[in-house]
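User: I'm preparing a small set of examples for a lab meeting where we compare how different chains pack in three dimensions. I only have the primary sequence for this one, and I'd like the structure in token form so I can line it up with the others. Please keep the answer compact; I'll paste it straight into my notes.
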Amino acid sequence: MKKTLLFYNLYPKVNWEEITASLLKNVPHDEIIVHVTLPIFPLFRKRKVINELKKYPNIKQVLFSKNVKKEGESIGFEKLKKEVVLNNYSILTYVHSKGSSKKRKYTKEVKDWTELMRYFVIERLDLTK
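Assistant: Understood. Below is the structure token output for the 129-residue chain.
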């Protein structure tokens, strides 16, 4: 039987640890692949991100790219298609670290939107099945 995959796009700049914890706290998917878009000072952030992501045992792989503002999240999708055999999965769902790019963007409304994304994409994976 094929597995379910959650693809998480992470931009580790502001409040990303809290956002990641809220999204990945209870994932029913078989595996998680994380794409990290690295902002300025990538080496420092890369080590910190790797250490933080070790908290989540379902993470199978972590992919890294440099941030290119005009390309947004498409970099992660391209990297996923290039580096991961997707035939092994029957369901692939997607979430991202909404609100992690700027402190002023991490508002109550964004937190509510992130919670809705988590609920429908992760918690209610049964609806997708």
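A couple of notes for your slides: The CA atoms of residues 12 and 49 lie 7 Å apart. The mean pLDDT is 90.

User: Perfect, thanks.
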